[in-house]
Amino acid sequence: MKNDELISTGNESLDSLLSFLRRGDNVVWHTPSVEEYRKFVRSYVDEALIRGNEVHYIRFAEHDPLLEPGIEGVVLHELNASAGFESFSKLVHEHIQQAGERSYFVFDCLSSLLSHWATDSMIANLFMVTCPYLYKLKAMAYFAILKNHHSYSTINKIKNTTQLFLELYKSEDGCYVHPQKVYERSSPTMFLPHKLDSNGCFHPVANSIEATGLFYTLCSLSASEQKKLDAWDRMILQAKEVLASSDLEKQAEVFNTIAGFIIGRDERILQLAKKHFTLRDLISIKARMIGTGFIGGKAAGMLLARKILENSDDSRWGKLLEAHDSYYVGSDVFHTYIIHNGWWDLYIEHKTEKGYLEAGGKLEELMLKGKFPSEIIDQFREMLDYFGQYPIVVRSSSILEDGFGNAFAGKYESFFCSVQGAPEIRLDEFLRNLKRVYASAMCKDALEYRSSKGLAEIDEQMGILIQRVSGCFHNHYYYPHVAGVGLSYNTYVWHDDIDPDAGMLRLVAGLGTRAVNRVKDDYPRIVALNAPDMIPVNDMHDLKRFSQKQLDVLDTRVSGKNAISLYELYDEHFPFDLNKVANHDREAERMLVERGRKRKNIWILTFGRLLKQTDFTHEMKDLMNTIEAEYEYPVDIEFTVNFTEDDSYKINLVQCRPHQTNIISDTKDISAEELEKYSTIFKSKSNFMGGNVVMKIQQVVLVDPYEYSMLKEDEKYQLARAIREINQDIEETGRNTLLLGPGRWGTSTPSLGVPVNFSDINHMNAIGEIEFEEGGLMPELSFGSHFFQDLVESNIFFMALFPNSFECTFTDNTFDSFTDCFSEAVSGLNLAAKAVKVYRFDSSPLVIKSDIKSQDLLLLRRQDSSDVSLY
């Protein structure tokens, strides 16, 4: 061993005891007090300074400073631990990196972080990512944790990671140091307790008489029991004690502390929680938590909405609402999973601008393959034992999700666990789906959404909401009778008789997945709650065409949801009166008979009886208005409806979040007088979302329906690249753009429309979907879907154009008189040139004009335009 590799602690006797420190040593002092730790810190620092080394002091605790301010050679780094584990650990990492190799560090007592994070596991996680990095750089560091503050599990993780772990005892007889771990060093007495004498020398406790007396005095039974508890568990024990007392002031104090550690960081949600939850509620939530940390936005929103209804004066909700028995995987488990699998360096790389997407993509793949700590697996087993053979759904509930301003609608995943079988089969299915939800936090669409919202640098941890699926068994199928989405404020109305304040529903039979997603050849029932009879279609032909034909159900023989025809289900003795949700298609039944075929019941899912002959619409309107009044903000809910044997029904409220309402309504880019100088390019009736608009358009991007339908599937994906490139150009140039194309935008299925993600079209100002019946490409007015939520958040106007309708004048040659600028807009994608047209109107913009009252939609151009590039 070279002499320059032997580092002094500043105490010769301790150097002798430990055979000196070595480059890369992390020294953890398990101490009874910060004051005892401080004594050893000062001798270590003094020695380092004498040797001409700079010492970096990482300061974050409320306790008195370990080192006096202004010491020459000591660099102070003050960090804010309340910003959260991720931000804090990232800053620590950066300071270590800046200090460089062979540096010296002193850290405040790690136990102080409990006041910010409340959980042992994150302190262990911090050490497990910091210690190896220091060791890699051959840096020296002193740490401390307090006795009787941490669980055995936490202490063992720290002990297994560090190079030196030293127990420090203080008794009436003096001070003792007991090395528990000294990496790559040993001696006959090294791992015995050593007593510090008045001269600063250590002497081993070498006989059993003295050792027995020492440990009997220091380690009482109560202290030993206390050490088994996590700080989180001690906090809950204290809460239960306070709850049993009559000290309301103390109860409020403990409530505020626990709420800040469980509910989340959104101040508006926290204030609502403090108004409606009790300390008993928080203790109940903790009882159903796996791991520690926040339950996340989706879980908090669901619980809060239910509590608002429970606390209201309306007694209906107690009878109407189905109870829940959800579980929550705390957000800390997300970071623990990453650290346990050795991915933290990659995760830190992902938090940089350069590595944001690339490292995120790698993490997305890795998260599908990782393992969980055994103590977490044990808790998963207990949870699955509780649910038994009932299907459950594993839902994302990140700390940023479902808050005010950021819905994350459809950006993160949820997966059903439906397979019945042995415990290990159920566990395997659950773990696979849990990892898929974690991986979705790193998917490109989610990362780009966070970036677009300015959230790329903000801590984002994935909590998990685990819910029993609401529904009933029908042979091997399982599903709710009805499910849907509700909006307390109907941002986009399609008729002037609709009252936006009444709200709207998007109803489906079966699982609610068809209510939140746009599905091929299937349509939900759109309900304006003040006019439930009104539908956004023109006649019975359209009603059949734009109705739901398949149900999403769970099949207990296979994993995940499955689509099954309504006809297949009712042929198997439908488990409730189908008249409640469907009407007979008498015309189709009569045609069968006329053609000599056996008479058969044919149904159209209209939900007519539920909407017209029950109080359902009034109850849903009142339910959402009650929650909205407390939120002081429109809300967006997901729910199920299950019919009961007494011919009534139960509503299960499974999600609630603030509904983003960045409506375009009443914008005026140009005056009415100016509009008189404009002529019509095309007009349409109804079928638009966005309110009363007068909007300038500098660019029209048109995907020709016929040419698109002639492309091969791989060519359609290449065309999507052209749209993506144009979208990126719009971000740079700021051109107000109208995007028109066949079928549906925002689909991943080429047969439905151009296969783009929303992030590929999110800079458009207006989007139009064109009916092309010959190619089977149909628009969908997606009120309430995830795509709808994206449109609202991004202030994008939406229109659906039906050229075969006499009310729509859009045709194949509407833009033929204008000059195509595709080659200027897109390079290297000649394949798309025939199908994609780009028209620019920089000097004389077109105008989109819409009017809710008349339901007129117009695209206009100035009659005296002198912009030669248009023709």
What is the element layout, followed by pairings?
Elements: E1 6-7, H1 12-18, E2 21-22, E3 26-31, H2 34-50, E4 55-59, E5 74-78, H3 85-99, E6 104-107, H4 114-117, H5 120-136, E7 140-146, H6 152-161, E8 164-171, E9 174-182, E10 194-196, E11 202-204, H7 208-218, H8 221-227, H9 231-244, H10 248-262, H11 267-276, H12 279-287, E12 289-290, H13 297-311, H14 316-320, E13 327-329, H15 332-340, H16 344-350, H17 356-366, H18 374-387, E14 392-398, E15 414-417, H19 423-440, H20 444-452, E16 462-468, E17 472-474, E18 477-479, E19 482-487, E20 504-509, H21 513-516, E21 525-528, H22 540-545, E22 550-555, E23 561-565, H23 566-570, E24 582-584, H24 586-594, E25 603-605, H25 608-612, H26 616-631, E26 635-643, E27 649-658, E28 667-668, H27 672-675, E29 678-685, E30 688-689, E31 693-697, E32 699-703, H28 705-710, H29 713-733, E33 737-742, E34 766-770, H30 786-793, E35 797-801, H31 822-825, H32 830-833, E36 836-840, E37 846-851, E38 856-862
Parallel strand pairs: 3-7, 3-8, 4-5, 4-6, 6-7, 12-13, 28-31, 32-33, 33-34, 34-35
Antiparallel strand pairs: 1-2, 8-9, 9-10, 10-11, 13-16, 14-15, 14-16, 17-18, 18-22, 19-20, 19-26, 20-21, 22-23, 24-25, 26-27, 29-38, 30-35, 31-37, 32-36, 37-38
Helix pairs in contact: 3-5, 5-6, 5-15, 9-10, 9-12, 11-13, 16-17
